[in-house]
Write a structure and sequence with these properties.
Elements: H1 2-14, E1 30-33, H2 35-38, H3 44-56, H4 59-62, E2 66-68, E3 74-77, E4 83-85, H5 94-103, E5 107-113, H6 129-139, E6 143-147, H7 156-170, E7 175-178, E8 196-198, H8 218-223, E9 237-239, H9 252-264, E10 269-271, H10 280-286, H11 289-295, E11 304-309, E12 312-319, E13 323-330, E14 336-340, E15 344-346, E16 349-351, E17 355-359, E18 364-368, E19 373-377, E20 382-389
Parallel strand pairs: 1-2, 1-10, 2-5, 5-6, 6-7, 7-8, 8-9
Antiparallel strand pairs: 3-4, 11-12, 12-13, 13-20, 14-19, 15-16, 17-18, 17-20
Helix pairs in contact: 6-7, 9-10, 9-11
The structure holds alpha-D-galactopyranose.
Residues 35, 70-71, 118-120, 147, 179, 181, 202 line the site of alpha-D-galactopyranose.
């Protein structure tokens, strides 16, 4: 008996019972990530200015908390194997940058890779997992995005478990963002390893397109969420990839549809645009609190596609308090007419005539569920409504 107790105590003490840090992402993480807009062209001035803009433009107060520096901040390892930040681009060092981010009331995110090199050929963490985790803890890192390039013959579950354990051992709570692009179905194994996992290949800045290497536009990502919604839940999220809102290609209608559907999926919301130069419209899209509340709903249930009639799709998401969200999306380039009776039963959810209906983009009450939803949806438009019990 005593021996068993001793073994259990040793396991705890040595971290053999490592786990992910619980309760760090009870709702999908929100923030900003450098990759979509800046790629490798980042430096500490940009990051500091982005932290300032997150505060001054109201992003932080709307819930965007994590400022994540993606690939290319790192350049080499020193003679002791410690990861070294690019001294030209980050002359003040990562600890000082993290302190600045924290001083703005934000959280500090960083990027590495489970392979020998990152996707841009910078040093990866393979073989240095525990050392890197200790370094991140010393720098005050709160969030790690961990990529999958150059992973060799590693098993994905084992590789991500190793980094999870390393982070846990280092002792500083870190949100662990798995980024293996859905290739080995992380939704089936990652629930106890990470707080979020990329479910698809990289987003491309387009509404409707697909690339030969697997990159996907907004619609192509949405299509990959028809079957995996049930795997998402409180503390462990399907990640539909970073936002392209405000990056100059999508129309405002497409941007609203993009953000609405990411919220319907309870996806993490990482803005990916230049926050210093946002138009008033971009700010109003990204900070629409009624839409963000659907994403952050505490039940954490991902939407299901309820109906599909040619280019019109209707998605449905149960919300806390017996409420529901619906998204009507027009994928096509011709207008569609809506005349939809919402009184129905979807799975176990009963929708009767006793709901108030609110348009979450127009911020306007539309009446009750006793009446049909009527109107027109132009090309690539969305109607996002919330039904609350009277
Ligand atoms: C991969 C990831 C992207 C980004 C780049 C950086 O492609 O999926 O999100 O992090 O690497 O190199």
């Amino acid at each position: 008996m005593k021996t068993k107790l001793l073994i259990v105590l040793i396991c705890f003490a040595t971290g053999l019972f490592a786990q992910k840090f619980e309760d760090l992402a009870k709702t999908p993480p929100m923030g900003w990530n450098s990759w979509n807009k800046f790629g490798c062209d980042i430096n500490e001035t940009i990051i500091r200015e982005m932290a300032d803009s997150m505060v001054s433009k109201g992003m932080r107060d709307a819930g965007y908390l994590y400022l994540v520096i993606d690939d290319c901040w790192q350049i080499s390892r020193d003679s002791l194997g410690n990861i070294v930040a690019d001294p030209q681009r980050f002359p003040s060092g990562m600890k000082s940058l993290g302190d600045y981010i924290h001083s703005r009331g934000l959280k500090f995110g960083i990027y590495s890779d489970a392979g020998t090199a990152t996707c841009q050929g910078r040093p990866g963490s393979r073989g240095y997992e525990f050392q890197d985790a200790r370094t991140y803890a010393a720098w005050g890192v709160d969030y790690l995005k961990y990529d999958w390039c150059n992973h060799g013959k590693q098993n994905s579950e084992a590789a991500y478990t190793l980094m999870r354990d390393a982070l846990y051992k280092a002792g500083r709570p870190v949100v662990f963002s798995i980024c293996e692009w859905g290739t080995t179905k992380p939704w089936e194994w990652a629930k106890n390893i990470g707080h979020l996992w990329r479910s698809t290949e990289d987003i491309i800045n387009c509404f409707d397109c697909k690339n030969y290497w697997g990159g996907s536009g907004v619609l192509q990502i949405i299509d990959q969420f028809t079957d995996i919604g049930s795997y998402t839940g409180v503390g462990h999220w399907n990640d539909a990839d970073m936002l392209e809102v405000g990056n100059g290609v999508l129309t405002p209608e497409e941007e609203r549809l993009h953000l609405s559907m990411w919220a319907m999926f309870s996806s993490p919301l990482m803005a990916g645009n230049d926050l210093r130069k946002m138009s008033a419209e971009t700010v109003s899209i990204l900070t629409n609190r009624e839409v963000l509340a659907v994403d952050q709903d505490k039940l954490g249930i991902s939407a299901i596609r309820w109906m599909k009639y040619a280019d019109l799709e209707i998605w449905f998401k149960p919300l806390d308090g017996g409420a529901y969200a619906f998204c009507f999306i027009n994928r096509g380039s011709l207008p569609v007419t809506l005349n939809e009776d919402l009184k129905t039963t979807i799975k176990k959810y009963v929708i009767d005539a006793n709901f108030l209906v609110r348009d979450l983009w127009k911020h306007k009450d539309l009446g009750s569920s006793a009446e049909n939803i009527k109107g027109n949806l132009g090309a690539h438009e969305v109607l996002m409504i919330k039904l609350s019990r009277k």
